[in-house]
Amino acid sequence: xxxxxxxxxxxxxxxxxxxxxxxxxxxxxxxxxxxxxxxxxxxxxxxxxxxxxxxxxxxxxxxxxxxxxxxxxxxxxxxxxxxxxxxxxxxxxxxxxxxxxxxxxxxxxxxxxxxxxxxxxxxxxxxxxxxxxxxxxxxxxxxxxxxxxxxxxxxxxxxxxxxxxxxxxxxxxxxxxxxxxxxxxxxxx
Length: 189
Description:
Radius of gyration: 17 Å
Distance between the termini: 55 Å
CATH topology: Rossmann fold
Strand content: 25-35%
Largest sheet: 6 strands, mixed
Number of strands: 9
Helix content: 25-40%
Number of helices: 7
CATH class: Alpha Beta
Order of helices and strands: EEEHHHEHEHEHHEEE
């Protein structure tokens, strides 16, 4: 199985981050590690081994990235709004540098699926909700999608609003007798 380690420029983060690419061809899947994890966590925890048959057959190609959680969502010394601003730097790295690198490696702008567990699930689902044009599929495993539940304190402004699916996702659900439903709450008609 092909395994490549990339160092991808991350100007928004003030350096570079790592991406590990597994497989030679297939649907590109961007995997986010669990909270505070690194690009090699999938391999270290046996996920790549479990996917080996699909990777070898060219059904899927996995791209695992480093996290930036220690400087953003997992930093309890920062108020929520600042954590959200720090997360935006990570989001910019993914959208502006990692996804173009995946497209270049895949031979074109194929739709990318995103996946992750724990805080990685948040990153995967949030990316797909915000950038469905690039990442139309997401698999979130054991995720929490409400940043205000993560030892949150401080003001909650625009940066938090646009990084929190609980804030920006609202779905009309008249067939259920609901006028609208955001992920966190529903209003009865």
